[in-house]
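Reading is simple: the token line describes the chain's fold. The lines below illustrate.

. . .
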Amino acid sequence: MKIYENDHFVFTLSDDRNDLELLWKADTAGMSAADFKASLYLYACFATEHKVTNLVVDIHQFNFEGAMSDELTEWRNEQIFPKYSAAGVKKMAFVGEAEQLPPADPPRHPNANFDTRFFSNTDEMNGWLKG
């Protein structure tokens, strides 16, 4: 069920897995760092409001070049990860093309009480989220 949409993304709730999906749109190429921060903050707010245990981030169309800058990564780790943890998130999955994904899943960050994995296969992702 779609619960929010703007030019950069769509949020949907899944009934069968208790997750909140963030589907990035191709228009992310025009985002600023402030837009990116606002998107993640809003995502964390919706995760808290809907008490989801899983987060899914679809990066197939993600085009924002500055997303993993040191500054934005540190901000996300310090400001957003604790919000996801406080919301009760247990698993976070990123899905995209293999070439978009890092070669290995990240270690758990000290501010994150949830596991994060990267998937290029939706069936594998769904199995992990349901497990």
Observations:
- The first helix runs from residue 33 to 50.
- The mean pLDDT is 94.
- The domain at 2-130 is CATH 3.30.750 (Transcription Regulator spoIIAA).
- The chain has three helices and six strands.
